[in-house]
Amino acid sequence: MRKIRKRAIRKSRTPRQHGLRSRRPSKRMNPTSFILIVVTLILAAFGLLMIFEASAISALRTFDDKFHFLRNQGMWAGIGMVAMSVVSKIDYRRYYSMSIFMLGAVIISLIMVFLPGVGVKVSGAHRWINLGFFSFQPTSLAKLVLVIYLAAWFTHKEKSRLVSFLLLLFIVLGLIILEPDLGTAIIIGSIAVVLYFLSGAPLVQFLALLPMGIVSVLLLGLSSPYRYKRLLTFLNPNSDPLGSSYHVQQLLLGFGSGGWFGVGLGRSRQKFSYLPEAMTDSIFSIVGEETGFLGASLVLLLYLTLIVLAFKIAVNAPTRFGQLLAAGIASWIAIQTIINLGAAVALLPLTGVPLMLLSYGGSSLLVTFLGIGVLLNISNQSK
Question: CA triplet 296, 1, 26: central angle to 5 degrees?
């Protein structure tokens, strides 16, 4: 990340003031793009397998069809792969002029989740928009769109933009917290701060934003009863094994049952309604139980490869805008993966954040494929 920051600052002082001039995409796929596609498809395919393993029992009981969730996720995976292929051929520089309109559309969609007849309320949360044949979660798209907007904005060197930056975060994060969805708000806020730092902002401002963010998260956690219980559970996982600590206990039990080599595919016991959110937020526990330490480590290696490739694309991007855009997507993948996996092994509080490419959820999967498509286009225009 230090290399990205240095190169971004240096490029801002070159005659290419906006960093939008770039070479034409190569007709031949470079090795980085090829490996990125392979890793993405392996994770997505493995995700489909684990979603079926984790959901077959509940799907059979609820819908009398054990393939129900697999079929839905498979449809979104197909759409996502087509979208990734299309986006990889669109010159990423086009997003520069479109970024303000994309941001406006996302803010409107975040407001629409609260409108009766349009927004869908599930378990007290306003997080989805009813689009007729399916529901879509705007917060998933907000991650990618905010990265695009901030990359375009930070391409310019400006003085005294901290207030404007904080105002934008206040609007976007405020709408997301109202849903409520603190986990997504933490991810988006973290990505934004990382991009602000990489754009060449003074280190003093970056260091000042960190305690502000930590204090804000703590206050929000203490202000809500269920978040407060999650914080207490994180500090003492054994405090209430049959109540607030139940989820964490079942997560750890799944990992512990897996041992070195796992209990075998399809033989998970936690999926029999013991582990909450087994196919969404907690799917990595099923991975650990069925494939063991070895299988879980291989999955971690794939995610590490994905993150390293994304940052490599950022370092080699031919323009300042491309650098910041790729760095933002790389940060998004890294931060969301760390938060989900950290919660899965009780190193972080539970936040309800899905594991990209593995967890069940069409909106998250589709937007992830879109982000990978943007990375591929940047990569194909690099050296």
Answer: 85
